[in-house]
């Protein structure tokens, strides 16, 4: 009978872990819908980026207030995981504070968790204020209407509740320790710098009630963690996991260097080769299927761009630094990322409900989510790429979609068509004769 | 004065059996735009003064393809790139200097994969190296004590991490270099990049160049310095829009240095 708790706990753990694993599998499958791109070169540089940017949060602190608070929450998250490990062992084996044999060091650990928990609450409350009271511009932006705005707040509520449960649980535990309740050996109030201030509220309660509260908060705490884990997949909070692979696989080349489409290179070489026979039939193996130039839907993007979309934290730093957005144009690089993720999820659901194959649904990322007007407003300035705390490139998606508009649909704005015609005919974007290129030399 | 300009072409050099140390890539703007031509000439004067062995391609130069690429026309870009590479490889070019960050970025980063491998430097970097080698001297002259703010071109700064060379040069003028609130990595675009130069902007509340000009005006400058012919145009338009063209000048770093010495 006394094993009931342990069995229940194991079931909870398996259910929580299993559902999460299922979603991770789906996530990986969706990301793999993207085109291949090689991002395995230069591993040392990549590890360094990951260590600096994801682990070390080096780009977060460029906005000091948010950066500092974020580091608190992040440290709290990492360190309290040690506590979670203890909870899991206690839960599975029916022990209580299994790590307490470490003595003074254990007290120190618990004490530091408590301090962090309090700091996390402070940070989270500040975050909430920034979104809902101060209403910073990038958080009241229309991109976030609906689910994204609620999602952001839910995460904050979740974290507050989890931290409160943790402190409350410790307070009840401390109370029982002072009472000398069986099974609650004293580890000293120095381990509970924060919760010892909560503990007096239990004075006068019956021991069995406090015991119940201690157990209850313990269960709620771990159940909450499991629910939160599974919430990740549906939330921008997924970045706590994906920030790591995302910074590892991020582009290492200079920001100004755009890729040269290889399929185009081959055709251009053929066109320029004086020995090529223009009337020769194409080699039978060449392009049996016409490769699409550029991207109109998520499957045309590469897997790193799709990983980017899942990693985006919707923080809006990109949008707030985008010159087009700042001057009131429709473009928002954050929205480009959110649209890409939304469409990818839609494609994923389509595949799920059609036995593993995608059935065309008459929709695409282009037009149904992202309009040409947004795409044409981009100056390719790379401010969004520079700003992104997790090394996402909204610009690369914008460029691939422009390529589709121009090369597949010939749908560039008229003035750009004129510019391109000029380059083709005169070797300059303006209507000047190439023979006049050196005229400046003799002009006054 | 322009009679003094010595501008050999690669073809002429080759006819004389000579190989210059560096190719000056003038770019479309520097070749055709009336304002940018002045930058080109100022830079040539400095090259002449420092006795740099250089040449231009002249009528053999063609658009790098940058605006086509940023507009999404990869075909046209690669046609341009390969044609240019063919010409430059035939002349066995090793080193290229250009006053246009867009040409700089494209030739430096995007040409190598297509067979065009050169050492490419921006003219501010080149001038800085001439200065370091003692081949060029810079005196403050008429810019002494003037407030000068530098606008980072996106394709020079963020795109390629060149931030210091232009600033070092400006400081050599004994001028007061004042930074805008958004500078270096956080610099704001002038609004011309990504082929925007060649079209009307999308609808919005404001034009980007006006927003950027406001950043510059906040520093109460005497001169706004730029290192890109497109930025130059955008900021000059911004200054006109703000009706400040009487009191504030927009100048390229090369022009500042050439003017300081009355070249
Ligand atoms: S690259 Fe485009 S989307 Fe990104 S900040 Fe610049 S204009 Fe905005
Ligand atoms: S792309 Fe980066 S900067 Fe932009 S909202 Fe997403 S995480 Fe933030």
Give the helices and strands of chain A as they follow along the chain.
HHHHHHHHHHHHHHHHHH
The count of helical stretches of chain A stands at 18
Distance between the termini of chain B: 9 Å
Oligomeric description of these chains: heterodimer
**Overall SS class of chain B:** alpha/beta
Q: What level of helicity do the residues of chain A show?
A: 55-70%
Morphology of chain A: elongated
The molecules bound to the chains, other than polymers, are: iron/sulfur cluster
Number of strands of chain A: 0
Question: What do you see in this structure?
Answer:
The complex is a heterodimer of chains A (444) and B (263). With 444 residues, chain A is mainly alpha-helical. Chain A has 18 helices and no strands. Chain A has helices spanning 4-31, 43-55, 64-93, 104-132, 137-140, 147-179, 207-231, 239-248, 262-272, 303-311, 317-321, 323-326, 333-353, 365-368, 372-376, 383-387, 394-408, 414-426. Chain A starts with a helix and ends in an 18-residue tail after the last helix. The relative contact order of chain A is 0.10. Chain B is an alpha/beta fold. Chain B has eleven helices and eight strands. Chain B has helices at 10-15, 27-32, 34-49, 66-71, 74-90, 101-110, 123-132, 164-171, 208-218, 229-241, 253-260, and strands at 22-25, 54-55, 95-98, 119-122, 147-150, 176-177, 223-226, 249-252. In chain B, the strands form two sheets. In chain B, strands 2-1-3-4 form a four-stranded parallel β-sheet. A four-stranded parallel β-sheet of chain B has the order 6-5-7-8, with helices on both faces. The longest helix of chain B has 17 residues, at 74-90. Chain B is globular, with a radius of gyration of 18 Å. The model of chain B has no long low-confidence stretch (mean pLDDT 95). At the A-B interface, α9, α12, α16, α17 and α18 of A face α2, α3, α4, α5 and α6 of B.
